[in-house]
Design brief:
Chain B: InterPro entries: DDA1-like, DDA1_dom. Chain B: One of its GO terms (cellular component) is Cul4-RING E3 ubiquitin ligase complex. The complex is a heterodimer of chains A (about 525) and B (about 100). With about 525 residues, chain A is an alpha+beta fold. Helix content of chain A is about 20%, strand content about 30%. In chain A, the strands form 6 sheets. In chain A, strands 6, 7, 8, 9, 10 and 11 form a 6-stranded antiparallel sheet that branches. The longest helix of chain A is centred in the middle third of the chain and has 17 residues. In chain A, about 30% of the residues are buried. The longest helix of chain B is centred in the middle third of the chain and has 14 residues. Chain B is about 20% helix and about 0% strand. Classes of the chains: A alpha+beta (about 525), B mainly alpha (about 100). Chains A and B meet through helix 4 and helix 5 of A and helix 1 and helix 2 of B.
Chain lengths: ~525, ~100
């Protein structure tokens, strides 16, 4: 739409020309090509906190104290200073401070002495400006599998989810899970959609659905796992005490429920769906039974042993659930283990679909409709503009390139589907990561907030469109590079969603204080 | 009707009655040519409301797919489900192949 790169010319053009229908936000975002965080304040003196992220509306900067017990929230502002000299090209020293950009709002202790805040966990409820944090006690590996727990998953004595109002730091509600395990790293075990939370208890194989009310209360909606409908437990309990006199081995007393080995809840739904799908494939009786033997009964025990690994919402009623074997539930590198995906309707308690990890049909949906897996609630409209291979031609071309380069199509599909189910709020909405605006090395920096290997070279952001020039560089670490070239360093980047402001945090692995740089537009 | 609008027809002869001809020296007929449809195949249903589909496209695809799978095999499907709906243990599994 813009014929010139000059910002004043663009502003005049904006006054006159109407953008093409439906592209007004895309056109407005092009001004980010002109306003870039090109100025860096290196190694700014700042409190020694662990900076987590900016909230997706840009109102708050979330950080945790070094001892992981307190939450400190800042308000991002902009610097202002006065200068008495005649030519004031460079910033005066007193402006180059952390406090010029951030005002501390409050410091709230969240964890008691035996607990720590999980510094990788944070979910933001934008509509009410609530934040969800998690604290936990130490993990106990090799915990015994009692009380319905499964083997192989560690146990944490107490996990607490805290719901805070971020405006003033008031704790609104808490939810405690005892002797349980929820995958808190990078918020993988919890998914937020609108006002619904899905918390996956790996140890008890239950998906807890909670609702966050406007008043700040966390309300239980349902628990899916051993039971699907809300009254299943009541039904089974009321029939539990029927004496089992007709059982072959002559037991006369009441059998406790847990010893009866019938599959219940979601496992039953899943297995009956798989059975019916195979049954319906063939009309001929003998072929059908052969198919069943080969595809279902041969793998029966494997299907029974599947456990839920990860969950996400597709909409308010549907969940995408990833199943896998017990060994891979908590480990990071479970890619070599078999995995399956199921779509489950919470209202009708039916499984709608079941896919293997290299399913071509699921890959087709992933390739064409990737954005629809990031269930977009009405409050998170900025999600529509985060670049993905379904909404951006450059990202799509990259995907196609990788697909054609892959030696095995089914391996490629499997590798792509590993990212499902998605974790929520893991991508930064900053326009500087928009692939239509800038080109950058995705191995060094990207919209996904993960720690990366740090290099001494600055990371370049180059314009996608004419004149394809280098617009700005982000260099983590000290200005002249670090003196010690051999220590491994990792960097993380926090980009403000709206302002041309970013923080880069470089840490070494020896608990030395991290080097924080502020990148902004002067 | 003349003027800029041309001699386009309308379904109601009383339409465009307020229009004045641009050329007063040549007052062409004020009522437009009237055409009526000879069939009602293209009339929209009386309570039609057009709105966008709120269901997630992935779910739409999966439900459609599930329907397609079930439709031709309807006969087999009906054989499978038991007649009554309440839960009770299966008496025997005689039609299942041995494990």
């Amino acid at each position: 739409m813009f014929r010139s790169h000059n910002v004043a010319a663009r502003i005049f053009e904006r006054q006159i020309c109407t953008p093409a229908p439906g592209t007004s936000i895309h056109c407005a975002r092009r001004f980010y090509e002109n306003l870039v965080p090109s100025c860096t304040i290196y190694d700014v003196e700042c409190p020694d906190h662990s900076f987590r992220k900016f909230t997706d509306d840009g109102r708050y900067l979330i950080s945790f104290s070094r001892n992981h017990q307190d939450l400190i929230v800042y308000r991002p502002t902009w610097l202002s200073f006065s200068c008495k000299d005649e030519n004031c090209h460079d910033l005066p020293l007193k402006a180059k401070r952390f406090e010029s950009f951030f005002t501390q709002l409050y410091c709230v202790p969240l964890a008691s002495s035996s607990e720590v805040i999980c510094k990788d966990f944070f979910l933001y409820i934008e509509s009410n400006q609530f934040g969800l944090f998690a604290t936990s006690t130490a993990q106990i590996h090799d915990a015994p599998a009692v009380g319905g727990a499964i083997q192989g998953v560690p146990s944490i004595e107490k996990i607490t989810f805290h719901l805070l109002r971020l405006e003033d730091g008031v704790i609104l509600d808490e939810r405690v899970f005892r002797n349980d395990y929820v995958n808190l790293a990078h918020s993988m075990g919890v998914f937020l959609y609108d006002d619904l939370l899905a918390i996956l208890s790996l140890r008890y194989q239950t998906i807890h659905i909670l609702q966050i009310r406007d008043s700040g209360n966390l309300v239980d909606v349902r628990a899916i796992g051993a039971f699907c409908r809300e009254d299943d437990e009541l039904f089974i309990n009321s029939n539990m005490h029927v004496p089992m006199n007709h059982v072959g081995n002559g037991l006369q007393h009441n059998e406790p429920f847990s010893d009866i080995s019938f599959l219940s809840g979601i496992k039953q739904r899943l297995l009956s769906f798989i059975f019916r799908a195979i049954w319906n494939e063939e009309t001929d009786e003998t072929l059908r039974i052969q198919c069943l033997k080969k595809k279902f009964y041969y793998h029966f025990q494997d299907y029974v042993d599947l456990i839920i690994w990860k969950v996400q919402f597709l909409d308010r009623h549907h969940l995408l659930i990833k199943f896998g074997s017990v060994d891979g539930g908590i480990s990071r590198n479970a890619d070599h283990l078999p995995a399956f995906f199921a779509v489950y309707n919470m209202e009708t308690t039916e499984v709608i679909a079941f896919f293997s990890q290299n399913s071509a049909e699921l890959y087709f949906l992933f390739e064409q409709f990737c954005d629809h897996f990031h269930a977009t609630s009405k409050h998170s409209l900025y999600m529509n503009f985060i670049s993905s291979h379904s909404n951006n031609i450059h990202a799509f071309e990259q995907l196609r390139f990788n697909k054609n380069k892959a030696s095995s199509s089914s391996q490629f599909v499997k590798k792509m589907l590993v990212s499902l189910p998605f974790s929520c709020q893991s991508q930064s909405p900053s326009p500087y990561f928009d692939q239509s605006l800038f080109r950058f090395d995705e191995k060094l920096i990207s919209a996904t907030d993960r720690h990366r290997q740090s290099t001494d070279h600055p990371i370049k952001f180059i314009l996608r469109r004419q004149p394809y020039s280098l617009k700005f560089k982000i260099k983590p670490g000290p200005e002249n590079g670090s003196t010690d070239g051999r220590t491994k360093k990792i960097s993380s980047f926090l980009f403000h969603p709206v302002l041309p402001l970013a923080l880069s945090v470089q840490q070494t692995l020896f608990l030395q204080p991290s080097v924080v740089n502020i990148h902004f537009r002067k | 009707m003349g003027s800029m609008l041309g001699d386009w027809p309308s379904f109601d002869p009383h339409n465009f009655s307020q229009l004045r001809p641009s050329d007063p020296l040549n007052p062409s007929k004020m009522t437009p040519v009237t055409y009526h449809p000879t069939h009602d195949r293209t009339i929209p249903p009386p309570n039609q409301v057009i709105s966008s589909e709120s269901k997630n496209i992935i779910l739409r695809h999966l439900y459609q797919h599930a329907d397609e799978k079930l439709r031709p095999k309807r006969a087999a499907f009906e054989n499978l489900t038991p007649e009554q709906g309440c839960k009770h243990p299966r008496a025997s599994a005689s039609d299942m192949p041995p494990h």
